[in-house]
Amino acid sequence: MVASDENSDNSARNGDDHIVEASEFIDPWVIEKIQADLIDKPLEFIFADHHRQRQSALILNLVAAGDFDERGVCALIAFMKGDFALHIADEELGFFPLLRERCLPEDNIEPLIARLVEEHKDDEAHGEGVVNLLEKRLAGHDLTHDDTRKISAFAEHILQHLAVENAVLLPIARVRMDKASLQALSTMLKERRAELK
Predict the structure, then answer these.
(1) Is the CB of residue 8 less than 8 Å from the CB of residue 46?
(2) Would residue 13 be called left, alpha or beta, if left means φ above 0 and alpha means ψ between -120 and 50 degrees?
(3) 55-105 pLDDT tens trace
(4) Which residues pair with 2 in a beta bridge?
(5) Class for domain 10-196, per CATH?
């Protein structure tokens, strides 16, 4: 299971560490599931989802380096088509608006959120192309140098984005969001997932 932020290792917490090593995880091709009851602690849930995205970046880097695991690549494609997009909705429709309501002017939160929203647009714009490359590899075709460069660049983009959210945005949220706003966020997360069932 993905641990909460109190229990996660320093590598997942370190905003300056943009290199994901295969030795960090028991199986580098696995994207772990989030502990079910963590959704009642929404900031920990988001942090845990960030950890899963780090794992997806690890797999992308493995593929770019020429490694291949059919099960792992299939799981990554499913993650990118489903959970990755769901996480963006969680943040833009729930987390960011609620955080805006709680922040003070001196937090200067607007430029940060605007930057993250733009990066989400980049995720959506380039993510589909990366999925197509993964499906190409899954079909038995070799990846070109340009293909692997695009995959590596997308992995690095994910890691840089997570570094900002983990090192800057989540610490502000832990200070500013009160019990009511956290409960509202938890409810939104649950409702979004209920709609998908």
Answers:
(1) no
(2) alpha
(3) 999 999 999 999 999 999 999 999 999 999 999 999 999 999 999 999 999
(4) 34
(5) mainly alpha
